[in-house]
Each structure stands twice: as structure tokens, then as C-alpha cells.
Amino acid sequence: MQSKREFIKTAVMASMLLAAPAICIAQDTPWAEIGYDRILVANTNGDRLAVRFRTGQRYDNSNLQQLNWLWRDWRAGGAHRQIDPLLFGDLALIQTRMSLDFAEPKLILVNSGFRTASRNATIEGAARNSQHVQGRACDFNMVGVSPALVVGYAESYGVHGLGRYADFTHIDVGPEGRRWSG
After folding, report:
1. How much is the pTM?
2. pLDDT tens digit string along 55-95?
3. How many domains does the chain contain in total?
4. Residues ≥6 apart with Cβ < 8 Å to 173
5. How confident is the model at residue 125 (pLDDT cuts 50, 70, 90)?
6. Cα end-to-end span (Å), the chain
7. Residue 129 sits in which domain range?
8. What is the similarity comment for this entry (predicted)?
9. According to the 3-state scheme, what is the secondary structure of 113-163?
10. Tens-digit pLDDT profile for residues 24-35
């Protein structure tokens, strides 16, 4: 049986999910490269990209391929795989809300996107079945914003996996409800 607290949490999440498309349509941004369907992102290898990854409920496969390339494991010879597009949606939501709240575009800087299993094994503290290896995770900074504040935004939108670190934030679209600090 569901507790009262679990019921309320479920009801709130359901109402947010139902309202999300209306919110995304009702308010846009003044910046061409940032919005609920587009993302401005760079990686620590120096690559930068601004793309519309979705139009309505349809994903743009060509632009998703560009994002997959940016998410590649450039430290392991450029290995890449298809990244779960739900991750881009979560990041775009966080980026859009923060940009609107700060009244300036906020760049996402990806520290770690996809990782090969062999490289993941060399990272101290990395989970053996890391969402990074599955193409479902991102360690990132929002340029000019503390990771603690980014975590607050991510938490408010109910991202599935959320890790708080001193120098970056981790989000993923793996199983729901996972939270940790590193």
C-alpha cells in the first residue's frame, strides 16, 4: 500500500509531466540556441554545438547524431554510441530554466558523456554498470553556476539519477530516484 507521502509525490510528478508540454510551448527563450527542444553544449575537448534535437514530439536524427559525436569518449580514441535522447531533454530543461532565471544563456560543459567500459574501469569510484557506458549519463558544469545550484534545479525537475560533486553535477536517465554525493 502506498503511503500518503508517496501518493502526494506521485500526484505532483504526474501533474508536472502532464503540464510539461504546455509549459514548453507556452514559454520560449530569447536565444536561438537555447530552449526546451534545443541545446547549447560544449565538451572539455573544445568541441561546441548548438542544435535543435526535437521538433514537437519528433527527434531530429541528424542533430542527435551530432550530439552523439559530442558525447563521445574522446579520451578513448573517440569511441561513441547512441545517447538516450531523454538525457538531452533533461539537460535542455535545466539549461532553459537557468538561462531564463539568470536572464542570460548558460552553456553546458560536458566533462564526461559516453565512456567505454575499459576506460570506465580506470576511473576511481565509477560504477561497474555506469549509466555513462550505456549512453545515458552526463557529468557537466553549467558555466558560471555552482554545482550545488545546478543540483537544485535538476532535483526540482525529478531527473532519474542525480549525483552532487564539488566540481560538477551528474545526471542520468537510468532507474528513477537515485541520489548521491561524491
Report:
1. 0.84
2. 999 999 999 999 999 999 988 888 999 999 999 999 999 99
3. 1
4. 84, 86, 87, 90, 131, 136, 137, 159, 160, 161
5. confident
6. 33
7. 4-181
8. Belongs to the peptidase M15 family.
9. CCCCHHHHCCCCCCCCCCCCCCCCEEEEEECCCCHHHHHHHHHHCCCCEEE
10. 443 579 999 999
